[in-house]
Amino acid sequence: MKNQRIQERIEKLRRKMEAENIRFYIVPTADYHNSEYVDDYFKVREFFSGFTGSNGTLVVSAEEAGLWTDGRYFIQAEKELEGTGITLFRMQEEGVPEIWQYLEEKTQESDLVAFDGRVVDTAFGKKLEKKLEAKGVKLYYEDDPAAGLWTDRPGLPAHPVTVLPDALCGVTTEEKLAAVREKMCREGCSYLLLSKLDDLMWLLNIRGSDVECNPVALSYGLITMDEMFYFIGGRAVTPQFRTYAQDRGIILKEYADIIPFLKTFSYEGRVLADEKNISYLLYKTVSERAEILNQSSPTEWMKAVKNPVELDRMREIYLKDSVVVTKFIYWLKQNVGRMELTEVSAADYLDGLRAQTEGFLDLSFPTISAYKENAAMMHYEAMEGSCKKLAPEGMLLVDSGGQYLGGTTDVTRTIVLGAVSQEIKKHYSAVAAGMLQLSQAKFLYGCTGRNLDILARKPLWDMGIDYKCGTGHGVGYILNVHEGPQGIRWRFAPGSSEAVLEAGMDVTNEPGVYIEGSHGIRIENVMVVRNGVKNGDGQFMEFETLTFVPIDREALDKDSLRTEDIERINAYHKQVYDKISAFLTEEERTWLGEATAAL
Amino acid sequence: MKNQRIQERIEKLRRKMEAENIRFYIVPTADYHNSEYVDDYFKVREFFSGFTGSNGTLVVSAEEAGLWTDGRYFIQAEKELEGTGITLFRMQEEGVPEIWQYLEEKTQESDLVAFDGRVVDTAFGKKLEKKLEAKGVKLYYEDDPAAGLWTDRPGLPAHPVTVLPDALCGVTTEEKLAAVREKMCREGCSYLLLSKLDDLMWLLNIRGSDVECNPVALSYGLITMDEMFYFIGGRAVTPQFRTYAQDRGIILKEYADIIPFLKTFSYEGRVLADEKNISYLLYKTVSERAEILNQSSPTEWMKAVKNPVELDRMREIYLKDSVVVTKFIYWLKQNVGRMELTEVSAADYLDGLRAQTEGFLDLSFPTISAYKENAAMMHYEAMEGSCKKLAPEGMLLVDSGGQYLGGTTDVTRTIVLGAVSQEIKKHYSAVAAGMLQLSQAKFLYGCTGRNLDILARKPLWDMGIDYKCGTGHGVGYILNVHEGPQGIRWRFAPGSSEAVLEAGMDVTNEPGVYIEGSHGIRIENVMVVRNGVKNGDGQFMEFETLTFVPIDREALDKDSLRTEDIERINAYHKQVYDKISAFLTEEERTWLGEATAAL
């Protein structure tokens, strides 16, 4: 089946490319800030390819169009690219070239390779420089060559920002700026260039709403030892924020002026900038005028270690959010087969429950509601009309979270709606066992996620099954649901940095099984690293679990669980009952008693 | 109690330092090749400090003398440094400065810091350059400022080398040289500078005996695209080796001529050299004349991946060696309390059994025989006269191995001689459980030892106990018992490289418990990485165990073991009985039947 709309768009693009003598056009999925989620304004790749996943890069030439995406999206991309003439490149699979390798092979001397330098990250831009400029290929990056082809493109957002009360933040902007400047000084830098939006929000104790589910405002910051220049759309600046900024020596500038400003600024010293988080155009603009110290911004690490005030708010919010999800599970099990339900209507019900919760601001990401084999697509998005109807059989995977004044949540449960196969039970039990084995880990200070990942994955690896993604990521505080530098992953990338798990860092724990065409299982809790015993052997660390939602007993296969797994499930379920039963109705509580009974 | 001898030596050194205006004198523990074991000629640090451990660095100034060593040696160093006036610096413990930090703090402008540049590794030399030269401190490194103070110093060894038959090597020197040159070419290098002795032996399919327990010859190599210059003591060159070398385009040079040669050589292109494995003096000599590509030598990785011929020989040799150790355990249990036995005499008996084994060449390291609390010292060396007598109580830790024509072995068992406490049983059981949990790991291709280490350590970490060393290291093939790049360790060092575990790599698996003043437990098997199932989720890897020696049932506490641990112990013991019982006497076989009976 031909996808006329996409083929026409690509045709239009190719004509434009021909007119401008562009041999290859690259469209990654990014805004100007390397945010994971992007506002509609930036959905150029989706516009030209039809692929809606959150990660993917389109490369178009006269002869071929290819889309690169990762394992989470292989199944979804295959579906969405059908009939577009676009080839799917499955990243990290054997024999699949990386984009630079593909371009290195396909380009010839004096070819022009074009991309919008504002939406391309520095590493990728530099890689292209190194690999392509060496063979005489030219790069075009100062603006977007395809600008104008998308005629009904939405406008660039600039919603008013909110200043958070100190009681929610624990640390003031003045204190954060002082700590950042201390670090700049220690590194011998006179400036810190910040383009990462959640870092800017964290630093200024403000929140915005320019990106779906991310409470951030499009902006840039240049911090000097005495001042801070803050580039933000004029419409976003409320009188409250203007005063707040003035009182703290923060000079407000128009968002669009960042590049002209950096081109005319008098640099007196090195600029600390994390090349991972500044666009290639920012990198080129600054590096041609000053020395860059390429290093993680101190804000990244500081933001990741939640302070005691933040942790207290998070404990409260996670409890409320756990109650919401537990109520949802009860409602779903009660009503499936009794009323018309779909993936979307179930998600809507859950979203509605969250929206009624005190302090609710927004979802932290679009709720994933995936029934049966749809759940094998890790980031499947159900669509009204095309989505599956729910029946009293199989399982529904629901991955969801909220933005609250008090924290950002992220939780997944895969819920039994009726009969499930023995294979599914075996997989579900292994996922639950792995998740709880990681939750209960004791480890010496100095461990990173790479040391611990195998605890979650082991029951699956023992069966020859893997999930093609990390086990866990950091979670923001009233900020992005995906946050670094902490994480639980196993893969080794030479030279890459790893974050030692520090007390106060929060991290998700979400192993899964994804069997294409059959079923998908994921169970996800959020945990906080805390100090355990300290003795002559060192400081031991452990996790505190924040999420208290039952694991589905109907999908647990007692025979395939080890004694210690059963003990862990029973202990977790006792906690779930103790913590949330008080917030349920009588009926819900009775059900929860059964749902958390010892195996 | 004053250690007169050491204090006098340090006094002599201080007078010499004063005469030469040297403010700090640094003596690491290394030969000219960064070998782990060193010939007596190189034991300068031991000469001046009295500390006999295999790792340690002495730093002497007019006011202070300090010895830095790692966790394996804290207990031993404390004992040996008593009365010397030398302060022990416990590396990696909280608040203990690294040597460069110590020097950075203590030195002042125009101070002279001296060391023998041939025995200092490049990284350390460069670190000192960066940290000290910046503040105007001068480095002295072209020779050893303390040469001459050690009047009865032994001579530099140069024993005749042996050429190995092809049937033992699997791959010829010509093939190895071709593969190395292919890699040099791919990296854009015209030369490979090799100083690592086991890499040189592996490459040339020869063995030497210049270092105790290491079948290596002191030598250097410079490989060009057509030739190889091989620097070795004239006395080491047999007529057989001279012909062998000539036939392969290998030009023999005198060992001592390496520095003059490198100073006058006409470099036409880059030199590949692993700065980890060349001395600071080699580094300075070459880097002042040519560009160095600092990278692991291709020989390191090639040597680590054992070929099928080597693996077959190793399986045979490990079986023979396992029989030796099992016979030893039986003999020990039979005779303790019935005859006079000491740590040393027990080790001698074991060494004697090994020496009678077909193909035996040497021990692969001095046998560690440590009774009761002595076993808490990880690398304790029992001395005739001062060592402990064995009695029918407690445990004896024996870590030993042999060099055979067919492989290098390394095995540890901690053997019950009589009554042991419940605490010891609990610790022993946890060590056995961790060792076998790691042995049975299934993991995706791409994992390194850092992903797996926690499997061995988990039962101990769960109790708040750690062992202050890695879990495993590579083992050479008729070569050094410690070999890289593979290993099983958990600690993260930013920027350090990790070796993906490749099929054919061998690695030890040796968790332990070390309780100062009480007891020490270590159980060590050697394993080889091999391919497991391959499916859509990737290539799974697993380990093949080479060591088949019983784990002491008398120290296993069934109640503290999980069902799966018990199953693993029983399965391993069945293998042990099946593989080695045929090589035992009737009496030994009967005992082994009981020693390996299912728990």
Description:
Two copies of one chain form a homodimer. Chain A is α+β, with helices and mostly antiparallel strands. Chain A contains 18 helices and 28 strands. Chain A has a six-stranded mixed beta sheet, with helices on both faces. In chain A, helix 4 (99-106) packs parallel to helix 5, helix 5 (122-132) packs across helix 11 and helix 15 crosses helix 17. The longest helix of chain A has 28 residues, at 308-335. The first copy, chain A, is globular, with a radius of gyration of 25 Å. The termini of chain A are far apart. The mean pLDDT of chain A is 95. At the A-B interface, strand 21, helix 16 and strand 27 of A face strand 21, helix 16 and strand 27 of B.
Annotate the secondary structure layout.
The structure is a homodimer of 599-residue chains.
Chain A: H1 4-19, E1 24-27, H2 44-49, E2 57-60, E3 65-69, H3 74-81, E4 87-90, H4 99-106, E5 112-114, H5 122-132, E6 138-140, E7 162-163, H6 166-169, H7 173-186, E8 189-194, H8 197-204, E9 206-207, E10 219-223, E11 228-232, H9 239-247, E12 250-253, H10 258-264, E13 270-273, H11 280-287, E14 292-294, H12 298-304, H13 308-335, H14 343-355, E15 360-363, E16 368-371, E17 395-400, E18 402-404, E19 407-408, E20 411-416, H15 422-439, E21 442-444, H16 449-461, E22 472-474, E23 483-488, E24 506-509, E25 512-515, E26 519-522, E27 525-535, E28 538-545, H17 563-580, H18 586-595
Parallel strand pairs in A: 1-5, 3-4, 5-6, 8-13, 11-12, 13-14
Antiparallel strand pairs in A: 1-2, 2-3, 7-9, 8-10, 10-11, 15-18, 16-17, 17-20, 18-19, 21-28, 22-23, 24-27, 25-26, 27-28
